[in-house]
Design a protein that fits this description.
Arc Repressor Mutant, subunit A, 221 residues, ANTAR domain-containing protein, WH-like_DNA-bd_sf, two-stranded antiparallel ribbon, RNA binding, alpha/beta, elongated, CheY-like_superfamily
Length: 221
Protein backbone atom coordinates (compact mmCIF):
# COMPACT_ATOMS: atom_id res chain seq x y z
CA UNK A 1 0.00 0.00 0.00
CA UNK A 2 1.57 3.31 -1.10
CA UNK A 3 1.22 6.27 1.23
CA UNK A 4 0.04 9.42 -0.57
CA UNK A 5 1.20 12.73 0.86
CA UNK A 6 -1.37 15.45 1.41
CA UNK A 7 -0.17 18.70 -0.13
CA UNK A 8 -3.38 20.69 -0.46
CA UNK A 9 -5.17 21.61 2.77
CA UNK A 10 -8.01 23.59 1.22
CA UNK A 11 -11.27 22.97 3.04
CA UNK A 12 -9.56 22.10 6.31
CA UNK A 13 -10.42 23.59 9.69
CA UNK A 14 -7.85 24.69 12.25
CA UNK A 15 -8.92 24.98 15.88
CA UNK A 16 -6.45 27.16 17.77
CA UNK A 17 -6.02 26.68 21.52
CA UNK A 18 -4.13 29.84 22.35
CA UNK A 19 -4.62 33.08 24.24
CA UNK A 20 -4.65 36.07 21.91
CA UNK A 21 -1.56 38.04 22.92
CA UNK A 22 -0.30 38.95 19.47
CA UNK A 23 2.20 36.07 19.43
CA UNK A 24 -0.07 34.12 17.10
CA UNK A 25 1.39 36.41 14.46
CA UNK A 26 0.69 35.32 10.88
CA UNK A 27 -0.99 32.03 11.78
CA UNK A 28 -4.60 32.89 10.92
CA UNK A 29 -3.92 34.94 7.74
CA UNK A 30 -1.53 32.30 6.40
CA UNK A 31 -4.01 29.49 7.06
CA UNK A 32 -6.66 31.53 5.23
CA UNK A 33 -4.36 31.78 2.21
CA UNK A 34 -4.00 28.00 2.27
CA UNK A 35 -7.80 27.58 2.25
CA UNK A 36 -7.96 26.52 5.91
CA UNK A 37 -10.60 28.14 8.10
CA UNK A 38 -9.44 29.15 11.56
CA UNK A 39 -11.44 29.03 14.80
CA UNK A 40 -10.26 30.18 18.21
CA UNK A 41 -11.18 27.72 20.95
CA UNK A 42 -12.59 29.47 24.08
CA UNK A 43 -10.53 29.00 27.25
CA UNK A 44 -12.48 29.10 30.52
CA UNK A 45 -10.71 28.75 33.88
CA UNK A 46 -7.60 27.54 32.11
CA UNK A 47 -9.37 24.77 30.17
CA UNK A 48 -10.10 24.66 26.44
CA UNK A 49 -13.83 24.38 25.74
CA UNK A 50 -13.83 21.85 22.90
CA UNK A 51 -15.66 18.63 22.12
CA UNK A 52 -12.90 16.36 20.84
CA UNK A 53 -15.41 13.63 19.91
CA UNK A 54 -16.99 15.94 17.33
CA UNK A 55 -13.72 16.44 15.39
CA UNK A 56 -13.01 14.59 12.14
CA UNK A 57 -9.43 13.64 11.15
CA UNK A 58 -10.08 14.19 7.43
CA UNK A 59 -10.82 17.87 7.99
CA UNK A 60 -9.84 19.14 11.43
CA UNK A 61 -6.49 19.91 13.05
CA UNK A 62 -5.51 21.39 16.40
CA UNK A 63 -2.95 24.09 17.09
CA UNK A 64 -2.12 24.00 20.80
CA UNK A 65 -0.07 26.55 22.71
CA UNK A 66 2.52 24.71 24.78
CA UNK A 67 2.83 27.64 27.18
CA UNK A 68 -0.70 27.00 28.48
CA UNK A 69 -0.19 24.42 31.20
CA UNK A 70 -2.87 21.71 31.25
CA UNK A 71 -5.18 23.62 28.92
CA UNK A 72 -6.19 20.49 27.05
CA UNK A 73 -6.43 16.78 27.81
CA UNK A 74 -6.47 14.36 24.89
CA UNK A 75 -6.96 10.61 25.15
CA UNK A 76 -4.51 9.03 22.72
CA UNK A 77 -5.18 5.84 20.80
CA UNK A 78 -3.62 3.09 23.00
CA UNK A 79 -2.04 1.37 19.98
CA UNK A 80 -0.86 4.21 17.74
CA UNK A 81 -0.45 6.81 20.52
CA UNK A 82 -2.14 9.30 18.20
CA UNK A 83 -4.77 11.94 19.05
CA UNK A 84 -8.15 12.00 17.25
CA UNK A 85 -6.89 14.68 14.81
CA UNK A 86 -3.46 16.10 13.88
CA UNK A 87 -1.96 18.29 16.61
CA UNK A 88 0.60 21.02 15.90
CA UNK A 89 2.34 22.48 18.93
CA UNK A 90 2.91 26.21 19.28
CA UNK A 91 6.22 26.68 21.07
CA UNK A 92 7.27 29.76 22.98
CA UNK A 93 9.38 28.69 25.94
CA UNK A 94 11.42 25.68 24.86
CA UNK A 95 11.50 24.07 28.28
CA UNK A 96 11.68 20.24 28.16
CA UNK A 97 8.58 19.96 30.35
CA UNK A 98 6.49 22.04 27.93
CA UNK A 99 7.79 20.21 24.88
CA UNK A 100 7.04 16.91 26.65
CA UNK A 101 3.48 18.09 27.33
CA UNK A 102 2.96 18.75 23.61
CA UNK A 103 4.43 15.35 22.71
CA UNK A 104 2.06 13.75 25.24
CA UNK A 105 -0.82 15.42 23.38
CA UNK A 106 0.34 13.63 20.22
CA UNK A 107 1.84 16.66 18.45
CA UNK A 108 3.50 15.65 15.17
CA UNK A 109 4.89 19.11 14.28
CA UNK A 110 5.81 22.39 15.97
CA UNK A 111 5.64 26.12 15.23
CA UNK A 112 7.73 28.77 16.98
CA UNK A 113 6.01 31.83 18.44
CA UNK A 114 5.55 34.47 17.24
CA UNK A 115 4.35 32.59 14.19
CA UNK A 116 5.91 33.58 10.88
CA UNK A 117 3.93 33.01 7.70
CA UNK A 118 6.74 31.15 5.95
CA UNK A 119 6.76 28.41 8.58
CA UNK A 120 3.05 27.61 8.64
CA UNK A 121 2.80 25.48 5.50
CA UNK A 122 5.83 23.36 6.49
CA UNK A 123 4.40 22.68 9.94
CA UNK A 124 1.02 21.85 8.44
CA UNK A 125 2.58 19.55 5.84
CA UNK A 126 4.69 17.65 8.37
CA UNK A 127 2.04 17.53 11.09
CA UNK A 128 -0.80 16.23 8.95
CA UNK A 129 1.26 13.76 6.92
CA UNK A 130 3.05 12.34 9.96
CA UNK A 131 -0.35 11.84 11.58
CA UNK A 132 -1.66 10.00 8.51
CA UNK A 133 1.54 7.98 8.06
CA UNK A 134 1.61 6.78 11.67
CA UNK A 135 -2.09 5.99 11.58
CA UNK A 136 -1.66 3.97 8.38
CA UNK A 137 1.30 2.08 9.84
CA UNK A 138 -0.75 1.17 12.90
CA UNK A 139 -3.60 -0.12 10.73
CA UNK A 140 -1.18 -2.30 8.75
CA UNK A 141 0.41 -3.65 11.93
CA UNK A 142 -3.02 -4.45 13.32
CA UNK A 143 -3.98 -6.25 10.10
CA UNK A 144 -0.76 -8.29 10.19
CA UNK A 145 -1.36 -9.18 13.83
CA UNK A 146 -4.90 -10.34 13.03
CA UNK A 147 -3.55 -12.45 10.17
CA UNK A 148 -0.86 -13.95 12.41
CA UNK A 149 -3.46 -14.82 15.02
CA UNK A 150 -5.70 -16.23 12.30
CA UNK A 151 -2.95 -18.41 10.83
CA UNK A 152 -2.42 -19.92 14.26
CA UNK A 153 -6.08 -20.90 14.31
CA UNK A 154 -5.73 -22.45 10.83
CA UNK A 155 -2.78 -24.55 11.99
CA UNK A 156 -4.64 -25.82 15.05
CA UNK A 157 -7.77 -26.60 13.02
CA UNK A 158 -5.74 -28.56 10.43
CA UNK A 159 -4.03 -30.61 13.17
CA UNK A 160 -7.40 -31.41 14.75
CA UNK A 161 -8.88 -32.42 11.41
CA UNK A 162 -5.90 -34.71 10.76
CA UNK A 163 -6.48 -36.40 14.12
CA UNK A 164 -10.22 -36.73 13.59
CA UNK A 165 -10.25 -37.87 9.96
CA UNK A 166 -6.88 -39.52 9.39
CA UNK A 167 -6.18 -37.19 6.47
CA UNK A 168 -2.69 -35.93 5.81
CA UNK A 169 -1.85 -32.23 6.22
CA UNK A 170 -2.69 -31.24 2.63
CA UNK A 171 -5.94 -33.18 2.65
CA UNK A 172 -7.08 -31.71 5.96
CA UNK A 173 -6.22 -28.17 4.81
CA UNK A 174 -8.05 -28.57 1.49
CA UNK A 175 -11.11 -29.97 3.20
CA UNK A 176 -11.32 -27.06 5.65
CA UNK A 177 -10.67 -24.56 2.89
CA UNK A 178 -13.55 -25.96 0.81
CA UNK A 179 -15.85 -25.79 3.83
CA UNK A 180 -14.95 -22.13 4.45
CA UNK A 181 -15.60 -21.31 0.79
CA UNK A 182 -18.96 -23.07 0.93
CA UNK A 183 -20.12 -20.90 3.83
CA UNK A 184 -18.47 -17.81 2.28
CA UNK A 185 -16.21 -17.14 5.24
CA UNK A 186 -12.50 -16.40 5.33
CA UNK A 187 -10.34 -19.40 6.15
CA UNK A 188 -9.02 -17.77 9.33
CA UNK A 189 -12.49 -16.82 10.63
CA UNK A 190 -13.90 -20.25 9.75
CA UNK A 191 -11.09 -21.99 11.65
CA UNK A 192 -11.58 -19.74 14.69
CA UNK A 193 -15.29 -20.62 14.69
CA UNK A 194 -14.45 -24.29 14.23
CA UNK A 195 -12.14 -24.26 17.24
CA UNK A 196 -14.68 -22.31 19.27
CA UNK A 197 -17.37 -24.91 18.60
CA UNK A 198 -14.95 -27.68 19.54
CA UNK A 199 -14.12 -25.95 22.81
CA UNK A 200 -17.73 -25.65 23.99
CA UNK A 201 -18.42 -27.87 27.02
CA UNK A 202 -20.77 -30.84 26.55
CA UNK A 203 -24.44 -30.49 27.48
CA UNK A 204 -24.58 -30.94 31.28
CA UNK A 205 -28.24 -32.02 31.16
CA UNK A 206 -27.33 -35.33 29.60
CA UNK A 207 -29.51 -34.75 26.54
CA UNK A 208 -28.32 -36.56 23.46
CA UNK A 209 -29.75 -34.03 21.05
CA UNK A 210 -33.22 -35.65 20.75
CA UNK A 211 -35.84 -33.21 22.06
CA UNK A 212 -38.21 -34.55 24.75
CA UNK A 213 -41.75 -35.50 23.90
CA UNK A 214 -44.39 -32.93 24.73
CA UNK A 215 -48.14 -33.32 24.94
CA UNK A 216 -49.55 -33.40 21.45
CA UNK A 217 -46.37 -34.71 19.80
CA UNK A 218 -46.88 -37.63 17.46
CA UNK A 219 -44.06 -40.03 16.66
CA UNK A 220 -43.93 -43.27 14.83
CA UNK A 221 -43.19 -46.13 17.20
Amino acid sequence: MTFRLVQNFKGGRALVVMERTGREGALEPTLAKLGVSCEAVPIVDGRAQIDLASLTPDRDMLFVDGDLDGVLAIELNPLSQLPPVPVIGLVGVEAPSRLKALVNLGATAFLRKPVHGGAVYSALFVGVNQFLLRGGMQERLQTLEERRRGRRAVLRAVVQRMRDSGLDEDGAYDQIRRESMRVRQSLESYCEDLLSRRARPPDSTGHTGTPPLHRGDKRAM
